[in-house]
Amino acid sequence: MLKTFPLGGVHPPENKLTADIPIEYLSVPESVIIPVSQHIGSPANPVVNKGDAVRTGQLIAAGKGFISANIHSPVSGKVNKIDFASDSTGYKQTAIFIDVEGDEWLDTIDRSKEIIRDIKLSPEEIVKKCFESGIVGLGGATFPSHVKLTVQSGKKCEVLIINGVECEPYLTADHRLMLEKGEEILTGATILMKALNVDRAMIGIENNKPDAIAHITKLATSFKGISVYPLKVKYPQGAEKQLIKALTGREVPSGRLPLDVGAVVHNVGTAFAVYEAVQKNKPLFERVVTVTGKSLSKPGNYMVRTGTSLARLIEAAGGLPDDTGKIINGGPMMGKALNNTDVPVVKGMSGVVIFPAGESLRDEIKPCIRCAKCVSACPLNLEPFLLMTLSEKGLFERAEKERITDCMECGSCSFTCPASRPLLDYIRLGKSSVIKMARARNLK
Amino acid sequence: MSSTVLITIICLSLLALFSAVILYFIAQKFKVFEDPRIDEVQAALPAANCGGCGFAGCRNFAEALVKADTFEGLNCPVGGAPVMADVARILGKTAPVVEPTVAVLLCNGTPEFRPRTSQYNGVSDCRISNSLYIGETDCSYGCLGNGDCERSCKFDALHMDPVTGLPVIIDEKCVSCGACVKACPRNLIELRKKAKKDRKIYVACSNCDKGGPARRACKVACIACSKCFKVCEFGAITIENNLAYIDANKCTFCRKCAIECPTNAIIELNFPPRKPKVEVQTEVTNVK
User: Fold this and answer.
1) Are A266 and A145 in contact (CB under 8 A)?
2) Residue B71 — very low, low, confident or very high, per pLDDT cuts 50/70/90?
3) Which positions 96-155 of B are in contact with A (Cβ < 8 Å)?
4) CA gap B144, B129 in Å, rounded
5) B80-91 vs B36-44: helix axis angle to the nearest 10?
6) How far is CA B2 from the centre of its chain?
7) How many whole angstroms separate alpha carbon B46 and alpha carbon B48?
8) Do A422 and B140 touch (CB under 8 A)?
9) CA–CA separation, B103 vs B50, rounded Å?
10) Are B73 and B187 in the same domain?
11) Which CATH number fits domain A1-27+107-361: 2.60.40.10, 3.40.50.300, 3.40.50.11540, 3.40.50.2300?
12) In A163-239, which residue ranges form alpha helices assigned H by DSSP?
């Protein structure tokens, strides 16, 4: 019997079109736009000025405070300006514009292909290195990794979980990374184990990636304490709390952190980035992005420097098809539609899905028929139909009591609703209002 | 047969009498004194229960009025001066003069001026589309057009124009309760002082971007060129965050700023048509 989480979940069509396409390195663009806020937490502070020459891997914006991350130049060249640029929502935020000249890397970065398995750094040095290298969670949430590696006194980490689930349909970035950089990921996991002072790591991979499971299982035999677990295919298994439940059987209580049940979860992409930072001294400035869609002529997985324009990435994938209806940043379940392609690739961008016009529009909203499918689909045991109504009517106090803030916005409720009601739209609205309300109350 | 009826009547009457006595004493014991003036004041109020005064409803407002020492900060925008004078008469106080206001929309981004760059397919709710993304146009400050303000208006004073996609405010019906001001997630509605003959002159733009991006997003955006600021002789215009603002208290409706504005971001309403400037031209032709 394969492991999985017991409550809720849905089975969207997988459509992993790019699973067999190897990662392609995209050439360095002519100019890049680097937003200073590519992570959860306070935005980084630019440390370069207009006209400064920068080299690939150089620090260009320093993290402010504990929950923040450094940002490094993905290219070499000259800082054109520091100005506002549209992010993926269209709203403006501060960004560093760099004109590319050649591709000169910092001398400290080890660019050899050789895999180094000896870990020289101490646990404290590893955490420091993760902060310095600007490592954030590459699964999509972009939470600064050094925060997750810092175990507060009184708590103990018992197991490290490496997330190779990739439960979002269409996306294959993590899948390809596991196949092509398996040894690096496992070394990265060993580094994370050392930093957290644990002797056990579990790698969860969904059963729809048998090649990755076989490959990582074979490699893991030469690594101490790492075991691979195939998981039953179910969305949203890649969510932190669901993965912990699936692998360890422990449930993270409402409002608590995974560390409260002795687990820390990192994505395979993050493990790879940690490997590169610690063993190769290479900061995080490139990542794998899946560009996919049924109508694209050349969908694929691309290793891209951050700051590259999305338009360039789509061009590499065969250009935008004529019948494009929607471009989604992220997977089709949790991703958000983009309103233009002139946005830079950021650390948290795991994929871009292009939908043809026929598939992109929402169905007509019909009245709720009280079938309770959303309740059965919710992996967090919430009542989405109720939370939606409460948010719609502005009854936020009641919504708070119904634990609206537990919602992780996986979209299973909206996906399963036969009346195509906009459940998640309203829950998101209610959640943000409740968080605002609670913050105002705490200030008093 | 008749005795059964009689016994029933007597028993029930006794029971009723007994209950009445008990209820009388309970009512005496738990009597809550309520100022009779509250009812009177409430009767004088418009009973719209709109919340425009800042209280939950007319009853709450009446209680607050009766309790208050002065009427400072207490005003019923729906009833305006006549209702407040009535209330003042009932309570034997004087009502301060509060200038009547009316809602105006600080955006003029019709599709003609502000082209649509994307299509929103989600729920028709401004709060949701505002938190999701910039909106259907390139202006991150302008009207989203999903009609939260229309749904919030209890006085039928605000309607979405299907052609322009912007709300249209009917001055005669607007009581300036402020519901639409609160409903708009982009703070596009302002309550401005009412002037004679409903004349209005204001900057119909909220875009805080610099001139270039603002103009690219919308042809009638305020580009903060400060021409209006320079031409105003009364110091009514201030420019902050790349946006001009006309202070209704200082404005004398000379309309010079509206002529100066290169993007027509300043709107003038309900004025008589300007006199065509023919005199100067005729002089010139005479010289010839």
Assistant:
1) yes
2) confident
3) 117-118, 121-123, 125, 127-128, 131-135, 138, 140
4) 8
5) 160
6) 70
7) 5
8) no
9) 15
10) no
11) 3.40.50.11540
12) 173-180, 182-196, 210-220
Which residue from B minimizes the CA distance to A339?
B118
CA B152 remoteness from chain centre: 11
Checking ipTM against 0.95, whether it exceeds it is no
Backbone conformation region of residue B223, classed left if phi is above 0, alpha if psi is from -120 to 50, else beta? alpha
Domain assignment present for B139: yes
Global confidence as pTM = 0.87
How many domains is chain B built from? 2
Of B203, B208, B181, the closest CA to residue A91 belongs to: B208
Low-confidence ranges of chain A (pLDDT < 70): none
Would you state the pLDDT for residue A12?
94
- Reported as a single tens digit per residue, the pLDDT across B197-241 is 888 999 999 999 989 989 999 999 999 999 999 999 999 999 999
Assigned domain for B18 exists:
no
Cβ separation of A429 and B131 shorter than 8 Å?
A: yes
In a domain, B133, yes or no: yes
Let me know if residue B21 belongs to a domain: no
- Measured CA to CA in angstroms, residue A261 lies from A250, A256, B201, B223 at distances of 7, 9, 62, 55
Q: CA quadruple A247, A250, A253, A257: dihedral positive or negative? A: negative
A410 φ, ψ (degrees, to nearest 5): -75, -20
Q: Is residue A398 helix, strand or coil?
A: helix
* pLDDT of amino acid A139: 86
Select the CATH number that applies to the domain covering A28-100 from these four: 1.10.357.10, 3.90.228.20, 2.40.50.100, 2.60.120.260: 2.40.50.100
Residue B46 is encoded by which pair of tokens? 């418009």
pLDDT tier for residue B286 given thresholds of 50, 70 and 90: very low
Q: In the prediction, which pLDDT does B278 show? A: 52
Q: How confident is the model at residue B277 (pLDDT cuts 50, 70, 90)?
A: low
CA distance B134 to chain A (A): 5
Q: Which CATH number characterizes residue B48's domain?
A: 1.10.15
Give the span between the Cα atoms of B249 and A343, in whole angstroms.
44
> Which chain A residues are within 8 Å of B134, Cβ to Cβ?
86, 89-91, 339
Nearest to A422 among B117, B122, B133 (CB): B122
Cα A428 vs. chain centroid, distance in angstroms? 19
How far apart (Å, rounded) are the C-alpha atoms in residues A432 and A404?
9
Strand partners, B103: B191
Share of residues in chain B with pLDDT > 90 (%): 59
Burial class (CB in 10 A: 0-12, 13-18, 19+), A149: buried
Nearest to B134 among A91, A360, A426 (CB): A91
Q: Do B209 and A92 touch (CB under 8 A)?
A: yes
- Tell me the per-residue pLDDT of B142-181, one tens digit each, with 9 for 90 and over: 999 999 999 999 999 999 999 999 999 999 899 888 999 9
Domain that holds residue B63: 36-91
pLDDT over 90 (residue B288): no
Q: Hey, is A311 helix, strand or coil?
A: helix
Mean pLDDT (chain B, rounded): 89
- The pLDDT of residue B281: 47
